[in-house]
Design brief:
612 residues, mainly alpha, two-stranded antiparallel ribbon, 7 strands, 62% helix, 5% strand
Length: 612
């Protein structure tokens, strides 16, 4: 141990507190802006699933996402109701749904704060693992590089289930490290095996790919079995016993947080089919796994940290082979499993703590001369060096936070339509999934439109409770301007020719290929990589140019993918185009929203045609 590693526990906790405070500031700066106006598709899904479960219906809409996060939200929404009931604002639980329809801000805020707390927990667990497996210096450096990385920030900004799942995986790794003798502990082996399994099962109920955390856990089980001069069969019995305990704990925790698996066999079979179809839909030819790692990693954690991670992994495998294999087992399993499918940078979020831990080991190895005799000047140099390594990621954090504070093009387009298009006009709007608007501007629909959407929900087998309430709310309090909306995912010339709408609102999230001429393989997410997509968009462009007039356009400047700030490959390079100092150059965020008026429609209906 070097002098710097003998720092008092108080000093270590002070440094950890500083890391957590900075991370909290970053997360709040990213999560709070526009929480009342800008929401992601997964956020809506999680909240409405939680409201559905709170009403007594435990079956979710589908199983593409685990139920862990909605169950957490059910508890939080229940506490929200109790507080509002005590204050006299709510009389019955159904009032929560009315509040959601009138002003959903508090629901999205609770979701983002939940993931934010999970992110802080991930930082603490990374610090704990680094301290127990290597040294306090490794723990603190890894905690900073994890908490201030851009990927965890994106998960808080549009709350996703990755960080709660990652917390469970790290807790399981802590139990497994003690079981394998890589970290000190006082718990009995069977208890450690059980808790490791429970944590993996709970994490998998948030995000299914967390189940790959079983790889290092089962390795720890193998290493924990006695390998002395006894009979080989005795060791195998111990391994089998502890493996069964791990798998039993995993299954029990997973099913406990996924009760729908036991309640509805048809939902289970449909969910399995849906997941299998999803993987087949995303499957595409990609570079080998190693190339994939080297391609994405520098962009999302910074080139210095990525390089140090390679150095640290090599050092661990050379000098501490068992520890190196233990730490790398989970990210390697993720890369092997995800490479043929969802190989976008987003899915590296589950690997960030391990990357940070190995990078911290590499940093300590490179900085060994400074650690050997840590004078005050050398300590300052160490902190500065660690900061320089983190600098690319922090700059991306600043860019990302700056973007969230820009007006969103969808909000601007909504305001423009309400101010310039006559009430009752027929408008086709792109960006809807079923009846919910996701990638385009949300516009108020007439009561008959809402009634049709209710019929669509019921036709898909849904209960339609929220749709019924939305219709009742519109009938009781009609908006000043409501439109005959037709919501579509992507517009098609044939359908437009049949409907002959007065206005068409397109979302530039579907025009990445047209604007940037990037190959569909590099964009790596639907619908851009589907066969015939580019040709369909070209046909739509020609049709609109012939029959419609562009009357308004809202261009963000730098255009990101449909899931942004959850990043895909194309977004890593695009984020670098956003200026840090002269941020005024990036006027807006969101897609390119273009509003067209049919040439035969009366131009007098427009009061203004200026675009933002």
């Amino acid at each position: 141990m070097t002098g710097i590693e003998h720092a008092s526990r108080w000093a270590q906790r002070v440094w950890l507190g500083v890391i957590l405070i900075v991370a909290l500031a970053l997360y709040l700066a990213g999560a709070l802006p526009q929480v009342d106006r800008l929401h992601g598709g997964d956020e809506v899904n999680f909240i409405e699933t939680a409201l559905r479960m709170g009403s007594g219906v435990l079956q979710p809409f589908g199983l593409r996402h685990g139920m862990g996060l909605p169950i957490l939200l059910v508890v939080e929404f229940g506490l929200l109701y109790l507080v509002q009931h005590a204050l006299g604002s709510m009389q019955a639980p159904i009032d929560l749904a009315w509040l959601y329809l009138r002003d959903p801000t508090i629901f999205f805020l609770l979701g983002r704060l939940t993931v934010l707390v999970s992110g802080l927990g991930v930082i603490v667990m990374t610090w704990w693992l680094g301290c127990r497996l290597r040294s306090p210096v490794v723990g603190l450096i890894a905690a900073a590089w994890t908490g201030w990385s851009v990927l965890p920030l994106t998960m808080v900004m549009r709350f996703k289930e990755d960080l709660p799942a990652l917390f469970g995986v790290l807790a399981a790794l802590g139990c497994a490290a003690q079981l394998a003798g890589l970290a000190g502990g006082r718990m009995k082996p069977l208890s450690l095996a059980l808790w490791a399994g429970v944590w993996i099962g709970a994490a998998s109920a948030f995000k299914y790919t967390a189940v790959l955390g079983l790889a290092p856990v089962l390795l720890a089980v193998w290493w924990s079995a006695p390998s002395g001069t006894g009979r080989p069969s005795a060791r195998w019995r111990v391994v089998a016993q502890r493996s069964l305990v791990v798998l039993g704990g995993t299954l029990a925790a997973f099913v406990a947080l996924m009760p729908s698996l036991l309640l509805d066999r048809r939902l289970l079979l449909a969910g399995v089919h849906d997941l299998a179809f999803g993987f087949a839909e995303f499957h595409q030819p990609i570079p080998p796994t190693v190339t994939r790692l080297l391609w994405h990693l520098p962009g999302v954690v910074g080139a210095p940290v990525a390089l140090l991670a390679v150095v640290g992994s090599a050092v661990l495998l050379w000098r501490h082979r068992r520890l190196g294999v233990f730490l790398l087992a989970y990210p390697v399993a993720l890369l092997v499993f995800l490479s043929p499918y969802l190989g976008s940078p987003t899915y590296l979020a589950l690997m960030v703590p391990v990357v940070a831990l190995t990078a911290a080991v590499g940093f300590v190895t490179v900085a060994a001369p400074f650690l050997s005799s840590p004078t005050p000047a050398r300590r300052v140099c160490l902190v500065g060096l660690a900061g320089l390594c983190l600098w690319p990621s922090v700059v991306d954090d600043v860019r990302l936070i700056a973007l969230t504070r820009r007006p969103d093009t969808r909000t601007l387009a909504r305001a423009w339509v309400q101010a310039n298009v006559p009430s009752g006009a027929h408008i086709v709007v792109e960006g809807a999934r079923y009846a919910d608007m996701w990638l385009g501007p949300t516009l108020p629909g007439r009561a008959d439109v809402l009634a049709q959407e209710l019929m669509q929900v019921e036709a898909r087998g849904g209960l339609g409770r929220l749709a019924q309430m939305r219709l009742a709310l519109a009938q009781a309090h009609p908006p000043a301007a409501a439109f005959a909306l037709t919501k579509v995912f992507t517009a098609a010339p044939d359908a437009l020719d049949r409907m002959r709408p007065e206005y068409v609102v397109t979302s530039g999230y579907f025009d990445l290929d047209l604007f940037d001429q990037e190959s569909p393989r590099r964009i790596e997410a639907p619908p851009c990589h589907k066969p015939g997509f580019l040709q369909a968009r070209l046909a739509l462009r020609d049709y609109l140019a012939r029959d419609y007039i562009e009357v308004a356009r809202f261009d963000p400047g730098v255009r990101f993918h449909e899931e942004f700030p959850v990043m895909y490959t194309c977004d890593v390079a695009r984020l670098q185009r956003v200026p840090v100092v002269n941020g005024w150059r990036q006027r807006h965020q969101g897609p390119v929203v273009t509003i067209y008026r049919r040439k035969s429609a009366p131009a007098a209906s427009l009061r203004s045609s200026s675009a933002g």
